[in-house]
Input
Amino acid sequence: MKIELLDKNNEISSSLEIVFLKNLESSSDKELLEVLDFKAKDESCVLLVESKKIYVGYEESTYDSIAIAMANGVRKLKETNYESAKIVLNDDLKENFKAIIEGAYLGEYKFTKYKSENKVKKVQLNVIVDEVTKELEKTLKESKIIGKAVNKARDMVNTPPADFYPKIMAKKAEKIADDLALDIKVEGEKFLKENGMNAMLSVGRASVHESKLIHLTYKPSDAKKKVVLVGKGLTYDSGGLSLKPADFMVTMKADKSGGCAVMSTIWAIAKLELPFEVHAIVGAVENMIGGNAYKPDDVLKAKNGKTIEIRNTDAEGRLVLADCLSYAQDEIKDIDYIFDYATLTGACVVGVGEYTTGIMGNNEILKRNAVLAALRSGEYATTLDFNRFLKKAIKSEIADICNIANTRYGGAITAGMFLDNFITDENKNKWIHFDIAGPAFVEKPWGYNPHGASGTGVRMTIKFLQDLLKNN
Ligand code: BES
Ligand code: ZN
Ligand code: ZN
Output
């Protein structure tokens, strides 16, 4: 898709116009729209061929309302053989220009790689304004990068496990590093063994695919803060010997969403040339069954020396993250922020619904700011609080800690508190855990998200960093 910003005197001709309507009164097609029972509501969309207009409704001048309207408009355009459309920016739309651009990119996305009839239709959007300001141009440039980054994450997550295993994930990271001149390290199982990363190593042991630790670094000369992003990259989660039931296994190709999010985020940050030193660390592992598999009853020693009693091999993400978080903190000194992203628990989805990320950590202000950044970026997020009683639920009789809780309740929080065991004292207040199990993969399309991966985490992280710049 091509999007151009044009002032009204330099307008180029477009085959259609996408018109945003908050009420019908303002429309020259009012009577026709009424006959069609078109309502100026979120999600409503109609094409009037004679007037060459696609009408989209919106209820509020908010990111969601406008991004959803834009997504519907672009989808309708792509259903036709018209090749371009113009959008004339009114004041409401100008204020939400970010939502227009991102809504267009996120809404037009389709994962068609595995369709034999795979014709991709390219469209052009001409955005017409009274005056092309520097501010609008800047937003256009930024939002294009953000939209592309989200779609990059979606493409990776949507790719089936036969074509996307740890080595491929590492290849994708190498491609990102090549394109943007980032530093990259990819380590295999020999490294994991030599560095005592037994928790991560054990999870991948029954897979035919070697586990990979991926470490991308973006280090601009004007870096103001050091930010570490750690992602769960389970290229497939069968559950291991604590095998998932058939219905629950489907979609577990998306268990690499956290890893894909951090890879796409560092790509976007480098593209945007944000002044932060950013590290993206991914534990790329496949959790499988076999004679060689790690077992319930095993006790594993993690990189930081803590021993973990395994009672369920399906609680594998926390084991991979434990070692990746330790690796990150051993390797990188004087961290300002350390964030991890993971499709970690079904409990988080049960608790807060499938649209919302669960935000956990020890620093109230940091958690608050993360929630605000998420909401401002167009993502949904809420905090889930740790407490001293749930902490006891992951005690073990025979090891330092157990990989599952002894209670059915609060599973997202006990998983977050498990990870806290692998955060050093120095970093306790710099750490946030994002449980993206709900929104990472969309089974029933919602808003501008089609079926499949949503790219959760990318927008909120970029926004968090952009906000840091504003506040300094
Ligand atoms: N990858 C899953 C969590 C998940 C569930 C992600 C649903 C997306 C949608 C994770 O590895 C897992 O299986 N967690 C278990 C933990 C349990 C054994 C304590 C779960 O949530 O059931
Ligand atoms: Zn699992
Ligand atoms: Zn998992």
Remarks:
- Residues 234, 237, 255, 316-317 surround zinc ion (ligand 3) (CB under 6 Å).
